[in-house]
């Protein structure tokens, strides 16, 4: 528990430094590292993909995803995707006897869905000149506070198992607690953003909109978490890694972002949270 | 052989009608049908994915891909992708005991790479007001003429096996013949476009650029074909279907488009073939 909290504090400090004191592009590079590490964990730690070429291509492609939305054009991302698919097809043809199509497909699927989801944090930063940083904080607070709320509420009040076949420790009480803590923390963060920044710089954050969005994102973050648990279970590994003492691997910490952050990214395109 | 030629003539007539006499959006809908059928073949005929929900979501998503590039915004495609991933994750959680992650990943991978590749025909149509139709014809001529050239040259002159472990009938002589026929047909089509249309309406097609592009696309179309053969071989099916007498399924006819047409689409964005 001690190392878990310590790692959390160091992580939070890193997030603050990258978001508040460094140029926006640093976030893209930070996410590139996280995507590459996550893919390493997902493909190597699970022993699911063993072909070195497929691994290298997948990790490289994953590291490029945070840069997909930088320009106006869709073409660079499309070119990268085509290049990646071409390389995978080439390896599949060369090693058709030892490499199973479903393993290549697994590498492709994982290298697309998780890195693009994580990269939505970088896309969020670029989505608004003024409120980008606030959106990124929300994108981290919603899933992580849901995780934390579920963990503590579940530990103290958990009675009813949520899905014992996937994650035996998760409880319905924990889920409810996670959603409540996630909504509460998001609204608190929005309120702090209002009084500490917007009041002096202009703009009004819509608290009810933040609450509603968080209410949608919190269950989605649990779904991301459960999906990663299924992968671990079916690949018979306990944790994705040990890079973050007390938390496990990068994937163990970021898996809950899978569906929540992309939803946040899409919603703020159409309904900005700050007016 | 007779049914093969007859089906080919009917198919070609259909292509001409859709491209020359019907509004552009009809091509999008035609590709939607082809993508849906192709996915049905890839997932159902191979017996690789049996979960009805995953199948329905994958076929529905595939049918939407031809419309991805219609507007200026990236958001609708991104929303559809997130919706599709969310549905897959949900099914994976509900049926975690019977549904393997690698089968879901296979469905996701196939529903993305083949339909998006086929949809590039529709994207090509929209890529240029004047030359879109010519680009679509090129996108069909390059891979299909390569297939046909390889088939006939291979039948008469084939000596050296190309990759007996994947496709025992393919020969190196056939490959060379296919590339030559593909380049020749593309240049011929471009020349016809020049004298039948551009000479009276203005514009010059770059024949050497068409030849060079075709020289790149022809081997890529063989790679697409081989990749589909590996899928068939690993899933132990002979053909993807019987919808096109003499040709097999939609996938058997369209598999060679996998890498060639997306490359064509990307290249004409940066280097239009007609000035």
Quick structural summary:
With 275 residues, chain A is an all-alpha fold.
Please supply descriptive tags for the structure shown above.
homodimer; 275 residues; mainly alpha
Number of helices of chain A: 10
Structural class of chain A: mainly alpha
Order of SSEs of chain A: HHHHHHHHHH
Main sheet: strands, sense, barrel of chain A: none
Oligomer: homodimer
Largest interface: A-B, 46 and 46 residues
Q: Let me know the number of strands of chain A.
A: 0
Radius of gyration of chain A: 19 Å
What features would you describe in this structure?
Two copies of one chain form a homodimer. Chain A has 275 residues and is mainly alpha-helical. Helix content of chain A is 75%, strand content 0%. In chain A, α5 (101-127) packs across α6 and α6 (132-157) runs antiparallel to α7 (172-201). Chain A is globular, with a radius of gyration of 19 Å. In chain A, 51% of the residues are buried. The mean pLDDT of chain A is 91. The interface between A and B is large, with 46 and 46 residues.
Walk me through the topology:
The structure is a homodimer of 275-residue chains.
Chain A: H1 2-21, H2 24-45, H3 52-64, H4 75-94, H5 101-127, H6 132-157, H7 172-201, H8 207-234, H9 250-254, H10 257-270
Helix pairs in contact in A: 2-3, 2-5, 3-4, 3-5, 5-6, 5-10, 6-7, 6-8, 6-10, 7-8, 8-10
């Amino acid at each position: 528990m001690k190392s878990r909290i310590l790692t959390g504090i160091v992580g939070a400090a890193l997030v603050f430094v990258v978001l508040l004191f460094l140029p926006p592009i640093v976030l893209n590079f930070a996410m590139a590292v996280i995507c590459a590490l996550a893919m390493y964990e997902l493909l190597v730690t699970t022993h699911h993909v063993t072909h070195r070429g497929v691994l290298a291509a997948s990790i490289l492609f994953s590291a490029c995803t945070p840069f997909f939305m930088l320009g106006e054009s869709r073409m660079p991302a499309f070119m990268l995707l085509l290049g990646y698919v071409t390389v995978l097809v080439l390896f599949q043809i060369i090693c058709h006897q030892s490499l199973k199509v479903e393993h290549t497909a697994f590498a492709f699927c994982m290298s697309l869905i998780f890195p693009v989801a994580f990269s939505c944090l970088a896309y969020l930063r670029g989505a608004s000149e003024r409120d980008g940083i606030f959106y990124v904080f929300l994108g981290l607070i919603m899933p992580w506070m849901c995780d934390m709320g579920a963990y503590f509420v579940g530990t103290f009040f958990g009675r009813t198992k949520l899905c014992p076949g996937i994650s035996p420790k998760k409880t319905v009480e924990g889920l409810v607690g996670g959603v409540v803590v996630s909504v509460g923390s998001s609204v608190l963060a929005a309120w702090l953003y209002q009084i500490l920044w917007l009041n002096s710089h202009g703009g009004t954050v819509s608290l009810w909109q933040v609450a509603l969005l968080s209410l949608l994102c919190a269950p989605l973050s649990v779904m991301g978490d459960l999906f990663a648990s299924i992968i671990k279970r079916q690949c018979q590994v306990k944790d994705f890694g040990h890079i973050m003492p007390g938390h496990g691997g990068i994937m163990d910490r970021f898996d809950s972002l899978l569906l929540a952050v992309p939803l946040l990214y899409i919603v703020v395109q159409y309904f900005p949270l700050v007016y």
